[in-house]
Amino acid sequence: MTIAERRWRRLSLWGLIVVLPLVVAVKAYDDAREWWQSSELIERLVTVGATAQLGGADWRLADIRLAAERSDGSAVVLVQLEAVVRETGMTMRLPCKVALRDARGQQWLPTFLPPAVRSPDGKRMTTTSCNAAMSSKPQPGAQLTITESFILPRAAFDDVTPTISMAADRPIFLRFLRKR
Amino acid sequence: MIRVFGYLLAIAIAAGLLLAMQRSTPGYANLTGPIPVVGKVGDLIETRRFDVTLETIRFARRLHFTRYGRNHERDTTGVWAVVTAKFSARNVSVTVNSATWQGPTELRYSASSRVENAPGVLLGRRLEPGLSPQRGLIIFEIPADQVADATLLVSETNWPRLDSEARISLSSPATGTALVADMLDLNRLADD
């Protein structure tokens, strides 16, 4: 083997150290991007009473209340969020995900809620879920009230905080602090 | 001459190795298939998002249940397998939608839709973390020769991709000695 051939062979072997990780990165890029955009990783805390911008709207936690307690130790919790739409094309940012989370990492997702319910104080209230509200193609300036219901252990109610994320804006999500 | 022979031999060996690697590489479906979590009846099986424990398995030729005030009866030319199980969510709200009876010849039978309105049916129920496990029934309609040496496959969805699938060994005796009741009352089982 000539000196030139030996040099090329060495370069090729050293080149593998660069090329192999590059191949893995190129092949995995699409999957990694999909994982990144479907996960809730970057938390934005929203203080009590404050609004925060997400997905073309300003969001505020309007209410979180215990609607009913059951004999098996579970509770029905209603969460109301208010949103003022700032941009068009909200439908393009769907689906939105509202959840209740506790400090241990447990997460409760919304259950089905009929279009009209009785609030704990007896008043009739219409309910709109987050996805239904966004699907109605709200225009800039529209004010939306979103109500979601959850079933969780009664003991967890005091510790949970509502969160919201929208598909086009993940991995960012909002976490609303509650009045204590 | 010897050098040429050496080159040809090296090429042949390399080709053989590449062929062996290509033939032994699992297919895409297997590489991205379910991640098994193995157990047996009575074990607490912990998958990624839910826990499952199988309690009992009963066999019958006919099933009876009452729903919305009406009596229903279901018979079969095979055997009804009624599995009693408990599900619970681990850290996030989840719904377990898929249970499959895999027989000794690896034929697969989904949970029967003929009794999906029966009381106590467990599949499709929402599970919430922190709440007590939900106990209920999973019901299959299977040929009599699929009873022995079967495995129950439980997952959130049919054909999970890179997600957990509980594989529970069902140690049931061969057909000839299995206790096959003439009729099972699902209302009584659901209330137990």
Quick tags:
heterodimer; A: 180 residues; alpha+beta; Immunoglobulin-like; 5-stranded mixed sheet; 4-stranded antiparallel sheet; 11 strands; elongated; B: 192 residues; 3 helices; 17% helix; 45% strand
Structure report:
The complex is a heterodimer of chains A (180) and B (192). With 180 residues, chain A is an alpha+beta fold. Chain A has helices spanning 3-38, 130-135, and strands at 42-46, 52-54, 57-69, 74-85, 96-101, 107-108, 116-118, 124-126, 143-153, 161-166, 172-176. In chain A, the strands form 3 sheets. Chain A has a 5-stranded mixed β-sheet. A 4-stranded antiparallel β-sheet of chain A has the order 2-3-4-9, with no helix packed on it. A two-stranded antiparallel sheet of chain A has the order 7-8. Chain B has 192 residues and is an alpha+beta fold. Chain B has 2 domains: 1-28; 32-191, Immunoglobulin-like, CATH 2.60.40.1240. Chain B is built from 3 helices and 12 strands. Chain B has helices at 2-24, 28-31, 186-191, and strands at residues 35-40, 45-46, 50-67, 70-89, 94-95, 98-102, 108-110, 126-127, 134-142, 150-155, 164-170, 180-185. The A-B interface holds A 72-74, 105-109, 111, 151-153, 155-156 and B 91-93, 126, 128-132.
